[in-house]
Write a structure and sequence with these properties.
9 helices, 5-stranded parallel beta sheet, elongated, alpha/beta, about 280 residues, single chain
Length: about 280
Amino acid sequence: MRFLIVTGQSGAGKSRTASTLEDLGYYCVDNLPPELIPQFAQICLATTGRFERVALVSDVRAGRTFDGLLSALNELDSMGCDYTIVYIEASTEAIIKRYKETRRSHPLSKDGTALPEAVEKEKQLLSAVRARSNFIIDTTDLSTAGLRSQLIRLFEDQPQRAMVVNVMSFGFKHGIPLEADLVFDVRFLANPYYIPELRPKTGLAPEVRDFVFSYRQTTEYLQKLEDLLTYTIPLYYEEGKTSLVIAVGCTGGQHRSVAIAKEIGDFVAKRGYPTVVNHRDINHG
């Protein structure tokens, strides 16, 4: 079991960290009281295989000091539970700016303490936990995509699995999919619709697929398309996308686009990305 404890300064990005870890398949628990952490760890260990990846967020909301968290960590050590502490921090100036932008109050300023003083006080409270951290991530100049990239690099054994690629076929006469990131128009290819024996079939039928790919233009186009995707898909991943939608369209969405979308889906899946292929308009008459 991989057991992460995410802690750090309020406003530094712990919630964004938890959201990314959740996308990576971690079971995330926010603001669990420190006293319950050892019991929670025991439950996770007892349910063999059910909780393979767990991330707990612990911060100053759980109490004015971190003595409870330090005690919980000592108890985890005595249990022989392997855990990793991920500490999220940012400069005082950055945190003050974020709180002013969101108009939220810092947990330690609710008694009237000025925001700069609250931030510095929290740093002092966190110093012992920071010293025990395995990873310290400074988000001062880090974008959401940059934070995600760091977390994937640190905690995802198969980085490409952090982004799902959805390949869909569609018919232009039914409208372009609004969710599409990339749209490819294959209406220039020879159309099986005009072959009477192929018209009632779809691009999933071997004979329709063979017809579409019997033309040199089709194989050349697909090769160039695969070269483009080989180059661009990793860039989308590095940018921090969790989902990439590739839409392939022909006139009706039943023949050419279906055959090409299936080929693209197979191509992407072989490169290790979780891939979903669907044919939006395949049943439209």
